[in-house]
Amino acid sequence: SDPIYDAQIIVLINRLLRGLGIKNIVTEINSLGCKACRLNYKRKLIAYYKEKKGKMCEDCERRLALNPLRLLDCKEEKCLALRNEAPSILDHLCKSCNIHFKQVLEFIEEMKIPYRLNHFLVRGLDYYNRTVFEIFADGALEQKEAEKHEEEVVSHVSSKLALASGGRYDFLGEILGSRSISAVGVAMGIERVIELLKKYEIIPKPLRKKRIFFVYIGETAKKKSLPIIDALIDAGFNVMEALGKESLKAQLRLADKERIEWALIFGQKEAFEDSVILRDMKTGAQEAIALKSLTERLHKKLGARV
């Protein structure tokens, strides 16, 4: 249930799309709250729309009784006008859900992920709770890709095209007859991605071989971890982590289980000093490295560039 996982799935899909050369990526994000605060919000929403009966489309008249959250999905012009005055779910989150959503936003802000709040975003499926998001691309392929196709003017992928969507769905287990299981995920239009790869002759990079396990200690370090991990991945390293685990011992145990030779340890002290500790998992030897020279030092320490 840790909000770091909500943020990580958003970072992951942004990184993937960015790696394909797509730019101007924007994440629209909202929180649907938990069962308790969503029930309260539904009452407010129903009360609002009951006063608007006769002003909605036929589909929305049915939705009001069956699934009132879907009223916010309608694209009919007269329904859009009503939606603009509808109550916002963000004003009806309980304390716990409000804190969760705030932490998700803090994590993605730390990663400098462009986003905009969309309190009309509901995803329409009952098993979603708390974080929901959709990824849009207003922009184009990177200039270097466009130059390969001088006969084409690559202006945009779409002016308003959802490339991916997802969120948290802790209630899915219950719906399937099991128990509540904390989970986050994202779905992407695979056919659309394959079409882009073929059209612009984008060849995926080979699997990275140099593996590093990233370990954090404390909340301050945790919040600053994602940009460091992202920079390491961009530099060609295969980075594993367990940001949902708070225990140093548990994180190092997982690194050992995965037979990873090198670990980076990032604690409160390192967060303030802009440094990190590199640990040899075989010998236990450690050394401090400044963040500004981390990737260069790792390339030298771990061998040839990957």
UniProtKB/TrEMBL annotation:
Signal peptide: none annotated. Keywords: Aminoacyl-tRNA synthetase, Ligase, Nucleotide-binding. Residues 75-193 form the Class II Histidinyl-tRNA synthetase (HisRS)-like catalytic core domain. It is an enzyme of class 6 (ligase). GO terms for biological process: histidyl-tRNA aminoacylation. The keyword Ligase applies. It catalyses: tRNA(His) + L-histidine + ATP = L-histidyl-tRNA(His) + AMP + diphosphate + H(+). GO terms for molecular function: histidine-tRNA ligase activity; nucleotide binding. L-histidine binds at R123, Y127, Y128. Its EC number is 6.1.1.21. GO terms for cellular component: cytoplasm. Residues 216-300 form the Anticodon-binding domain. It comes from the Bacteria. Belongs to the class-II aminoacyl-tRNA synthetase family. This is histidine--tRNA ligase. The lineage of its organism: Bacteria, Candidatus Harrisoniibacteriota.
